[in-house]
Amino acid sequence: MTFRVSYRAMALATLLLASAAPALAAPCGSGTFEAWLDDFKKEAAAKGISQPAIAAGLTGVTLDKNILARDHSQAVFSQSFEQFSGRMIPPRLTRGSNMMKQYGSVLSRIEEAYGVPGEVLVAIWGLETDFGVNTGKFPTMRSLATLAYDCRRSDMFKAELLDALRIAERGDIAPQDMRGAWAGELGQTQFMPSSYIKYAVDFDGNGRRDLLRSAPDVLASTANFLASNGWQRGKDWEPGSANFAAIQQWNKSEIYAKTIGYFATQLAHAP
Known about the structure:
Elements: H1 7-19, H2 33-46, H3 51-58, H4 65-72, H5 81-88, H6 90-102, H7 104-114, H8 118-129, E1 138-139, H9 140-149, H10 154-169, E2 179-180, H11 193-199, H12 215-228, H13 242-250, H14 254-269
Antiparallel strand pairs: 1-2
Helix pairs in contact: 3-10, 5-14, 6-8, 7-12, 8-12, 8-14, 9-10, 10-11, 11-12, 13-14
């Protein structure tokens, strides 16, 4: 299936555009990308990342002008809730119900551990990547290095690139396997590397936090994110509630958050 940019990234773009520099912002500094990357490697080493991890993650990484073009031409997320939810939920509802059944025991254990119902997690999973089908094909290290080189949000993406190296260093995902959305989101529910470092958990017990291939890790990590951001066990997720606010920590867009909640409610009432 053809990859599409995650709708979470599209919604996030609305917020990023407000603080972005002019669309034709020049790369930071006057040097080449290669010179910038050499300096970044030294900075990564100074922050405690090992030379083998730096070499494995960054050797051969080049500038991707297509990533810069995507970043500079992001459209504002402007669909209504009715438009967005009406387009996104119906084609995913049957598969979402099947996923609820297929992973029922895992979802029950996750709810026991984190307090987040399975239908909320499956709704997010479906909206982000069609339940893991469309995780993205962009090399993560290349995307993040390209965005860090650009002046618009250099510090933000340098921090994300450092965390991507840490993910590889601790053995969760090999650098060559890190592929995701164009802005650096990884895995079946599209975690930025900083969130991956902070919230990813090894729920299948294999010693790695694998958000690319392990559905239990994906779902539990998403639950951990919500629980860490104020989710209240046993409460509903209607707009205005504490749990809706936790969903908005996942995605600031009210329309996207409402779509997650509405999808989850439909899954909860599905036969």
